[in-house]
Amino acid sequence: MTALFALATAVLWGLADFGGGLLTRRIPALTVVVVSQVVAVVVLGAVVLGTGAWREAGPQLWFAVGAGLVGPIAMLSFYKALALGPMGVVSPLGSLGVVVPVTAGLILGERPGLGQFAGIAVAVVGIVLAGGPELRGAPVQRQAVVLTLVAAFGFGAVMALISEASATVTGLFLALFVQRVTNVAVGGAALWAQTRRGIPALPPGTGPKLLWGLLPALAFVGLADVAANGTYSIAAQNGPVIMAAVLSSLYPVITALAAFAVLKERLRTVQAAGAGLALAGTVLLAAG
């Protein structure tokens, strides 16, 4: 069950990242983050009301608030690092956030077997290589490295926090709702401050009509991200956190495959090798 939900998380996060990447070619990244999360808040709000999940409010929701505070910071740091580039270095480094939940699992007393440790090592190497790291070329700016590491730590922290935010399925709905409301509050404040400084929320010469036309894609990104957080939480609560974290972190492989299928981007040799290693690591983890 843990492996199934963790792999579902990887697929959802991978597709959400792919969709978000495409949208940032049309509108600013911060606008993508805020609008997609607003859609998620509306949908989750309806689910919370329909299931009576608000009755499960308790101190554990502070974990959801923490995840909501960290998430937008991590995402914006990642987008800014991608803008500084080179993407072939930034993207794989961003996946190193898996170290945070894996460490949390070890602290909590999880001790994977030898085969699982081998699977973790192989999968993590595969995840990094699947991003197509650039081993030669232009030097990487120090700022890009710092921003990427901030993003990686943030992504890992969100994984660790959201898994502690609920103990039941209905409680998970409430936790995800609180997380997204916090996301919107943080991202919305940043967007407001940005527009006050004269940086438009939409490209010059466009207006709400463009946003409305992109709403289905924005909704997909926001809801896929929410669903991924939900499936990860279920995976982490029903099995080893380390296995859930590593398998969920296969999302760069999904993003690369989506780019290959939709945009006809050719996979570099290092990416194909990384995808193969990630798959091999998954098999070792599941078998262990």
What is the SS-derived class?
mainly alpha
Order of helices and strands: HHHHHHHHHHHHH
Q: What is the arithmetic mean of pLDDT? A: 81
Number of separate domains: 1
* Largest β-sheet summary: none
- Tertiary shape: globular
Radius of gyration: 18 Å
| Helix run count | 13
Poorly predicted regions are none
Helix percent band = over 70%
Strand count: 0
The separation of the N and C termini measures: 14 Å
Strand proportion, as a percent range, falls in under 5%
Question: Helices and strands in order, then pairings?
Answer:
Elements: H1 2-23, H2 29-51, H3 61-84, H4 87-94, H5 99-107, H6 114-130, H7 142-162, H8 169-196, H9 208-213, H10 215-237, H11 241-248, H12 251-262, H13 269-287
Attribute tags:
288 residues; mainly alpha; 13 helices
Description of the structure:
- It comes from Streptomyces virginiae (Streptomyces cinnamonensis).
- InterPro entries: EamA_dom (IPR000620), EmrE-like (IPR037185).
- Keywords: Membrane, Transmembrane, Transmembrane helix.
- This is DMT family transporter.
- Belongs to the EamA transporter family.
- The radius of gyration is 18 Å and the shape is globular.
- The model has no long low-confidence stretch (mean pLDDT 81).
- The longest helix has 28 residues, at 169-196.
- The protein has 288 residues and is an all-alpha fold.
- It has 13 helices and no strands.
- The chain has one domain (2-287).
- Helix 1 packs across helix 12 (251-262), helix 2 packs antiparallel against helix 8 (169-196) and helix 4 packs parallel to helix 7.
